[in-house]
């Protein structure tokens, strides 16, 4: 990866310039209004947060174009961005994923490589999320930046809420397709051993955790997953891509444990 760092001073200047440009502000407002009219979209926050999120999306896309980058990640999301943009990065990152690029929060490079790999294997957006603790064959996965075009084509139903921890801005609660087969990847911190499993979406709960939430039925040994889980973040996509992931990791020298098929591919 060729990592291009954009300073918060640069980002802040870009946000201020965008907000001072009436044409850009008007365009963002029109795009936000059209988005909110799409079927299955339910506004549960202030519409101004959504308009400013579309303006912030344009700023992010401008940064990506300047760097000729296919992906962007934002660290310390609740720092510089919120006071300057008067919204959150959650919805912009969701929109960037829906557009076919890659947008990740938190700049966690233990997990981001797995998202890049899975995106290119699946040819679909991927969902970076926080794992909870697996129990009774199910695990809840959640974050505030889920894509809506999880199959790469169709918008899933979404409620546009505030970002959970701050109760501010605009973040999508994406209701993912019940019964859909998913691939879940859990990388370690050192790129030595990744774990993955197949699952099926059981529910889209609304717990007091990050906004987009899925209960995933685990295909494999739930107790072993509880013992072996690692990392702060995991990655999810629609479809079964375990075989292809294992093939790629063997070439990269990373050990791969496929929990669903109980197979280990040595590095």
**Biggest sheet features:** 6 strands, antiparallel, barrel
What CATH architecture do you see? Alpha-Beta Barrel
Distance between the first and last residues' Cα? 20 Å
Q: Uncertain runs with pLDDT below 50, 5 residues or more?
A: none
Helix content: 25-40%
The SS-based structural class is alpha+beta
Q: Give the topology string: H per helix, E per strand.
A: HHEHEHHEHEEEEEEEHEHEE
CATH topology: L-fucose Isomerase, Chain A, domain 3
Q: What does the average pLDDT come to?
A: 96
Strand percentage, roughly?
A: 25-35%
What this model shows, in words?
This protein has 267 residues and is an alpha+beta fold. 34% of the residues lie in helices and 27% in strands. The protein has one domain: L-fucose Isomerase, Chain A, domain 3, CATH 3.20.14. The chain has helices at residues 8-19, 22-36, 47-67, 81-85, 90-98, 112-122, 222-228, 242-252, and strands at 41-43, 71-74, 102-105, 127-131, 138-143, 158-163, 168-174, 181-187, 193-203, 212-219, 234-238, 255-258, 263-265. The chain is globular, with a radius of gyration of 18 Å. The model has no long low-confidence stretch (mean pLDDT 96).
Keywords:
three-stranded mixed β-sheet; L-fucose Isomerase, Chain A, domain 3; single chain; 267 residues; 8 helices; alpha+beta
Structure summary:
Helices cover 34% and strands 27% of the residues. The chain is α+β, with helices and mostly antiparallel strands and 267 residues long.
């Amino acid at each position: 990866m060729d990592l291009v760092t954009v300073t918060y001073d640069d980002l802040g200047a870009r946000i201020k310039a965008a907000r001072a440009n009436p044409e850009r502000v008007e365009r963002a407002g029109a795009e936000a209004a059209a988005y909110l009219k799409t079927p299955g979209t339910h506004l549960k926050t202030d519409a101004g947060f959504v308009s400013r999120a579309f303006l912030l999306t344009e700023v992010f896309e401008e940064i990506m174009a300047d760097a000729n980058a296919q992906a962007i990640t934002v660290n310390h999301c609740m720092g510089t961005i919120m006071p300057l943009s008067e919204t959150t990065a959650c919805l912009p990152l969701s929109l960037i994923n829906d557009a076919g690029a890659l947008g990740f929060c938190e700049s966690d490079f233990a997990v981001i490589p797995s998202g890049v790999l899975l995106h290119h294997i699946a040819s679909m957006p991927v969902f970076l999320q926080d794992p909870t603790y697996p129990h009774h064959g199910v695990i809840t996965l959640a974050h505030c930046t889920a894509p809506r075009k999880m199959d790469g084509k169709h918008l899933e139903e979404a409620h546009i809420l505030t970002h959970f921890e701050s109760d501010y801005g605009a973040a999508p609660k994406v209701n993912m397709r019940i019964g859909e087969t998913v691939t879940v990847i859990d990388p370690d911190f050192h790129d030595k051993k990744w774990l993955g499993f197949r699952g099926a979406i059981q529910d889209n709960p609304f717990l007091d955790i990050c906004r987009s939430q899925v209960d995933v039925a685990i295909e494999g040994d739930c107790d072993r997953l509880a013992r072996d889980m690692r990392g702060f973040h995991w990655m999810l996509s629609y479809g079964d891509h375990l075989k292809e992931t294992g093939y790629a990791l063997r070439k990269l020298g990373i050990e791969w444990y496929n929990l669903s098929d109980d197979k280990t591919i040595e590095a």
